[in-house]
Amino acid sequence: MDNKKLVYFLCTGNSCRSQMAHGFLNALGSDKYEVKSAGLEAHGLNPRAVEAMKEAGVDISHHNSDIIDPEILKRADYIITLCGHAADNCPVVNNPNAIKWHWGFDDPAKATGTEEEIKEQFRKVRDAIKSRVEQFVKEGK
């Protein structure tokens, strides 16, 4: 195996935000990073997240919604939570070498309003996540 750093994106349900971050880092940094994502629970891949990412040119339709794997946590170089619930409830990580960060983003799945207003919230969160992932890759973390 090559020397790619393992980045583990965590969220509550692994349906939207962690999936978007996973997709963007795969698209922008797969040469440097092995990317995984998971949730405290597996809520299934949100179709609106898939659609929002497709609009941005990233296909996440093949992703799975997974529950946090303790073995991946142990070997992760970066553990990045994308929601407060995951940050507060992530299992104890027995990995002193992992860098742990919290990138908080609103949950687009909780958006209300018309279908277009909900889609716009997904786009807003998607673009914020993309910007943060681009910064991460640029800084060469």
Can you describe this structure?
It is a single chain. This protein has 141 residues and is an alpha/beta fold. The chain has a single domain, classed as Rossmann fold. The protein has five helices and four strands; from the N terminus they run E-H-E-H-H-E-H-E-H. The protein has helices at 17-29, 47-55, 70-75, 84-89, 115-139, and strands at 5-11, 33-39, 78-81, 99-102. Strand 3, helix 4 (84-89) and strand 4 form a beta-alpha-beta unit. Helix 1 crosses helix 5 (115-139) and helix 2 crosses helix 5. It is globular and about 45 Å long. The two termini are 20 Å apart.
Please describe the structure with a list of short key phrases separated by commas or semicolons.
alpha/beta; Rossmann fold; 141 residues; 5 helices; 16% strand
| Amino- and carboxy-terminal Cα gap | 20 Å
Q: Show unreliable segments.
A: none
Number of helices: 5
Mean pLDDT: 90
Classify the fold: give the CATH topology: Rossmann fold
Class by helix and strand content?
A: alpha/beta
Helix content: 40-55%
Write down the CATH class.
Answer: Alpha Beta
Strand segment tally: 4
Shape: globular
Count of all domains? 1
The whole-angstrom Rg is: 14 Å
**What is the percentage of strand-forming residues?**
15-25%
CATH architecture name: 3-Layer(aba) Sandwich
Please list the strands of the largest sheet in the order they lie side by side: 2-1-3-4
- SSE order, as H and E? EHEHHEHEH
Superfamily (CATH H level) name:
Response regulator
Largest beta-sheet characterization = 4 strands, parallel
